[in-house]
Amino acid sequence: MLKRTVLFILLSAGLYGMKAQQTIPFRITKHNNIIVKTLVNKKDSLDLMFQIAMKDYSISPDSKRKAGHLIFNKEEISDNNTVEIGKIIQENVRFFDNQLTGHEADGKIGTGIFEGKAFKIDYDNNQFVIYDKMPDLKDYQPINIILDHEGFYLAADNILEDDQQQEAYFVLQSGFSGAILYSNEFAEKQHLEKKLKITGEKILKNSEGKTLITQQAVLPYFKLGNNVFKDVSVGFFSGELKTQNVSYLGADMLRRFIWIFDAERKMAYIKPSKYFSEPYYKMN
Q1: Eight-state DSSP code of residue 12
Q2: Closest CA to 277 of 228, 235, 218
Q3: What is the pLDDT of residues 50-86, one digit of tens each?
Q4: Contact status, residue 138 vs residue 149, Cβ threshold 8 Å
Q5: DSSP 3-state assignment of 44?
Q6: In this structure, what is the dihedral angle of CA atoms 95, 99, 103, 108, given to the nearest 10 degrees?
Q7: CB-based contacts of 33: which residues, under 8 Å, 6+ apart?
Q8: Coil, helix or strand at residue 156
Q9: Are the C-beta atoms of residues 129 and 21 closer than 8 Å to each other?
């Protein structure tokens, strides 16, 4: 009888563990963006791009699939909506209107669906996994996270010329297809235009004739935790128009790891994914 009781407890624990997590399938575009299929208000089927730097949802003005059952107020906000993703139903969802998004997407989906839960971005199996409690973290490396205004920030080392190592904070930005985009402050302080090998440049002008120069370059080494990348494709801005206030860790770098975030958003745990050694995304 005791053996049967123990066996029942073990089986029940196993079944509870299975029920304590949910999965959301996604696909990855050639631009490294994550696309999630959703059904909004039981009427509108939309492809939404996952944006880790926001919490709510949004609709793009360039949406191919129209969200005709979303009602927006004068502030371009729509509240009290329902979103279905597979077997997951999220209620009281807020949408913002007229926000640009990535290629192949009708809008954006934020991290609100993971509210209060640990979650994994599994690039090897093209899925999110939502946990009621933290999973086994064997083979994962812990990384400190700072959550600020819906953005996930972490520190990483940038090795410039002559082995100069400079620490910088990056916000995780899954909507930016490239690997790294530096803030204006970091680019100017470190004189990146002089220290890095420039591989491309584009000059844009606004209606007042002021210039914005986007530059692509090669960073000798980039270190995230114990992981070191060589000859990394990076970008930064110069010219009269300088609006890049933070540095981005973009989708090309994000996809190189499998990520697990704790429910409190204080720690991330990473291990290399199947994309770890892939060539870097070429920005136009």
Answers
A1: H
A2: 228
A3: 999 999 999 999 888 888 899 999 999 999 999 999 8
A4: no
A5: strand
A6: -20
A7: 49, 50, 102, 103, 104, 105, 174, 175, 177, 251
A8: strand
A9: yes
- Dihedral (CA of 56, 62, 66, 68) sign: positive
Instruction: Give the residue among 171, 54, 64 at the shortest CA–CA distance from 109.
Output: 54
Cβ-count burial of 218 within 10 angstroms (0-12 exposed, 13-18 middle, 19+ buried)? middle
What are the φ and ψ backbone dihedral angles of 127, each rounded to 5 degrees?
-160, 155
pLDDT for residue 256: 98
- Would you list the DSSP string of 234-271? EEEEEES-----SEEEEHHHHTTEEEEE-TTSSEEEEE
Q: Look up residue 208 and give its two tokens.
A: 């007042």
Cα(185)–Cα(213) distance, integer angstroms: 15
Nearest to 57 by CA among 106, 114, 102, 96: 96
Q: Rounded to whole angstroms, how far apart are CA atoms 11 and 9?
A: 5
| Cα 194 off chain centre by | 30
Pairwise CA distance, residues 204 & 67, whole Å: 33
User: What does pTM read for this prediction?
Assistant: 0.89
